[in-house]
Design brief:
GO terms for molecular function: L-aspartate:2-oxoglutarate aminotransferase activity; pyridoxal phosphate binding. Its EC number is 2.6.1.1. Helix content is 42%, strand content 13%. The protein has 15 helices and 13 strands. The chain has a seven-stranded mixed sheet with strand order 2-10-9-8-7-3-4, with helices on both faces. Strands 1-12 form a two-stranded parallel sheet. A hairpin with a 4-residue loop joins strand 5 (162-163) and strand 6 (168-169). It is globular.
Length: 420
């Protein structure tokens, strides 16, 4: 009998995957013992003291659920908690949305925003075409590329989005690239607070983008991870999605409650498929449920119950809106203070883009070499493209970060975006 120990494992040739650019960064930060280390890579809100934050209204709902004897841990259906799905659709589309007429809208619960994208793109691969081209902005959230390919679609294509000279949206380049996209292509759009640049189209620019999407018969897929967290207004941050819905086109919308309710680890999200014509909603729902059944069977219950409780209660909803405004205000305050500190210490360049951008992230314009310099010398962690999480800054660290940025810019001048 052959000794199994002498036979190489079937898995011995599995190569090591590269670490995730963001999650790997967090691992490095946690293992760093330097007392003044700063993490500007994490995509999660932090308090003015740099600590994780549980919204008071979320905490009360969780306590109430724990005390309620009717609360159980029974399975949800594949498409999730119906009350949560209905309220989520109204939150992003508006309670009086035309999409709710004629059976045009199907919403299912998803594993936060990533899960909504994964289910949505799998649906596209199965019922549009496995060869459907997917266009994402350049730059975009790094995981978009991974999710699209894992869903059975070809590698993503890119459309120009960010103007590195102005720090704003490159509308001309974006329009030119979208006009060249084949009919039926899916165009991924950030509904608000573009990650990683923090640069959003104006309402007039959204109108122009919509026109090109309609003329080119493209299919928009909105990724909405920051509704209410960008401007502080749930209504304002939903404007782009609602404008496209009003146009009566086929589209998909992903939502996440990680940022705006602080439910990061609960993985609470939703996917809505909107048809230009009604009448096929149950068939669409059945196929989404089949995809979910094979992927993870059914979504988690606790976070959806928390979110539904807040969305469905007028007083708690109003309290949540107030919390969102406070969080958005702190982000804006950090933008102002970082810019002021950079001006005060004489860092070369124009840093106005920091206050013009919106949402959790700022695209600083720092090069990969400058980012590495700051990590090695100052123990300040950020993604290699120079994106920083404004929530990672505090009143105690903002000047330290600004001084480190000055040192990096002065020491490694090549490639600095002085005209931003």
């Amino acid at each position: 009998m052959q000794d199994s120990k002498s036979t190489p494992s079937l898995f011995s040739t599995v190569p090591t995957a590269p670490p995730d650019a963001i999650l790997g960064l967090n691992t490095q930060h946690r293992s760093d013992t330097f007392t003044k280390k700063v993490n500007l890579g994490v995509g999660a809100y932090r308090t003015a003291e740099g600590e994780p934050y549980v919204l008071p209204v979320v905490r009360r709902v969780e306590q109430a659920l724990a005390k309620d004897p009717s609360t159980t841990h029974e399975y949800l259906p594949q498409d999730g908690l119906k009350h949560f799905c209905d309220l989520s659709a109204k939150l992003i589309l508006g309670a009086d949305s035309p999409a709710f007429t004629n059976d045009r809208t199907v919403t299912v619960q998803a594993l936060s925003g990533t899960g909504a994208l994964r289910v949505g793109f799998t649906f596209v691969a199965r019922f549009l075409s496995e060869e459907t081209a997917v266009y994402i902005p350049k730059p975009s959230w790094s995981n978009h590329k991974n999710v699209v390919v894992q869903s059975g679609l070809p590698p993503t294509k890119e459309y120009r989005y960010f103007d590195y000279g102005t720090g704003a949206v490159d509308l001309e380049g974006m329009i030119e690239d979208l006009r060249a996209a084949p009919a039926g292509s899916v165009v991924l759009l950030h509904g608000c607070a573009h990650n990683p640049t923090g640069a959003d189209p104006t309402k007039d620019q959204w109108e122009h983008i919509l026109q090109v999407v309609q003329e080119g018969k493209l299919v928009p897929f909105f990724d909405n991870a920051y509704q209410g967290f960008a401007s502080g207004s749930l209504e304002e941050d939903a404007w782009s999605v609602r404008r496209f819905v009003k146009a009566g086109i086929d589209m998909l919308v992903g939502q996440s409650y990680a940022k705006n309710m602080g439910l990061y680890g609960e993985r609470v999200g939703a996917l809505t498929v909107i048809s230009s014509e009604g009448g096929n909603g149950e068939a669409i729902r059945s196929q989404l449920k089949a995809i979910i059944r094979a992927m993870y069977s059914n979504p988690p219950k606790h976070g959806a119950m928390v979110a539904a409780s807040i969305l469905g209660d007028g007083d708690m909803f109003a309290e949540w809106e107030g919390e969102l405004r406070k969080m958005a205000d702190r982000i804006r305050d950090m933008r102002e203070k970082l810019r002021a500190a950079l001006i005060k210490n004489g860092t070369p360049g124009n840093w106005d883009h920091i206050v013009k951008q919106i949402g959790m992230f700022s695209f600083t314009g720092l090069t990969a070499a400058q980012v590495e310099f700051m990590k090695n010398k100052y123990h300040i962690y950020m993604t290699s493209n120079g994106r920083i999480s404004m929530a990672g800054l505090t009143n105690y660290t903002v000047e330290y970060v600004a001084d480190a940025m000055k040192d990096a810019v002065v020491s490694l001048k090549k490639g600095v975006l002085h005209n931003m």
